[in-house]
Amino acid sequence: TLWLAADSWLVQDGDAAIWAALAAPLAPPGRLELGTEVLVSGTLRQAGYKPKLFDATAPVLGRPGLPAARPAALDRLFAGADSGLRVTCEGVVQRFTPVAPDAGQGQAGMFVLACGPRHVRVTVIGDRGTLTADGLLDARVRVTGIGATDRNPRGELQAPRLYLAGPHDIEVLEPPAAA
Description:
Radius of gyration: 16 Å
Strand content: over 45%
Number of strands: 14
Order of helices and strands: EEEEEEEEHEEEEEE
Structural class: mainly beta
Number of helices: 1
Largest sheet: 5 strands, mixed
Helix content: under 10%
Shape: globular
């Protein structure tokens, strides 16, 4: 499970995942922890590009931990095929935008990751902690997060996106060169 807002979750089971809107919002500290195993049920409806489960309930079955993230295949990520799945991606941070503490959804910051000739938007949710541009901008990093897509009103893919559960999902492989 990945918590995005009080009533918005992502649930992954093996190679499949679905976004869910819970029937009763859970506020911290009552929210589910990452890696919690749940039994999800609700009403399946079309919601943009993929179906979404509405009025979902999610009783906890256990806490086995997060599934292993697989390396992102850029062609799959840019086609939306890995939407909802936990993946890792390496690249260079090209732009960093901190998010105001009152921005909602617990967002800590956003950045653009250059993966070869392609660019992926990365949103870091959770507590901002030590997330700043210092030491991150122009650094080569490995990120682990949930694949997603930005789509226009017609449902056409505009860009891939990764959602990270927090700054702990960013590993600096090479720090930026000294100025």
